[in-house]
TrEMBL record, chains A, B:
Signal peptide: none
GO BP field: response to amino acid
Protein name: AsnC family transcriptional regulator
GO MF term set: sequence-specific DNA binding
UniProt key word DNA-binding: yes
Gene3D superfamilies in alphabetical order: 3.30.70.920, Winged helix-like DNA-binding domain superfamily/Winged helix DNA-binding domain
Organism, scientific name: Thalassospira profundimaris
Residue span, HTH asnC-type domain: 5-83
Keyword Transit peptide included in the entry's annotation: no
Keywords associated with the record: DNA-binding, Transcription, Transcription regulation
GO cellular component: cytosol
Amino acid sequence: MKRRIDETDRRLIARLQENARIPTAALARDVGLSRSAVQERLERLEKSQTITGYTVQLGDTARPVLLAEVMIQLEQKQSAGVVGALQKIPHCIRCLAISGEYDLIAEVAADTPEELDGVLDRIGELAGIKRTSSSIILSTKFDRR
Amino acid sequence: MKRRIDETDRRLIARLQENARIPTAALARDVGLSRSAVQERLERLEKSQTITGYTVQLGDTARPVLLAEVMIQLEQKQSAGVVGALQKIPHCIRCLAISGEYDLIAEVAADTPEELDGVLDRIGELAGIKRTSSSIILSTKFDRR
DNA sequence: GTTTAAACCGATGAAACGCCGGATTGATGA
DNA sequence: TCATCAATCCGGCGTTTCATCGGTTTAAAC
């Protein structure tokens, strides 16, 4: 009876973070278990939502050309309406609630400067927003989230 | 002679975004090519950095408890050294170069407040950094990157 | 002490893999 | 025009991995 993820699970996850397409048999050799045992572990991790999926990481070429970070200060501390509005904007690909001077960080993607400009304007005019501050993302130095 | 990614490449990428561990043979059936042709396409996409890797997506249970955004102002506009130092810190999971008052945004993950505090201190004391501003991430409102 | 279920192993036939030779196609330049 | 060259694809090969299952061990639960 095991519920908690143990050291072996962590090692499996670590290897999959490096390369999710590695064969199960190779994982098994890495951690010193049989292939079928590893297979069962992965099924458990997936079923328990510890692992929610496997995806491909794309380089800049296939990603949207322009990215920006938008720091947002709310008028009241009720973020729900603003977050909902942001979520309806397809260009808005991420939104975090933060502590400090600003209340939200939104990450925005666009294909052209004009498009980005339009999106930033649209965000700035949303109801419930006091102030915004935008930074164009010049490059992704690294990303291992 | 093909350089640009075509519709088939996009379909392959789309399938891999859903599940990066799907067998190449299944991808081949999906797009109507031979297995070896798909294998060559993937090698091309990887070599051209269109695809940079494959990773596992983790649920909340396995994710770090605490996240923070660190805005970084450099002393000179030479980011290479600082970025390299940040990349060596395992807690630092992402780094973007931006325009504006600050030069870099780093995203930091930690399991405890003490650990986060230590990481932020460590970043603040790196050579080449003039000033930093940190915001704890209270919650991820949405993320569809 | 018995029951029960989780976790593992090893075996087996089917499927997928890496690798390579050969056909096709379309652009390049003699 | 026609030979050349590289890109792209296919199919086949031996090897590896896969899904699945029965059987063993372990340890908590009763």
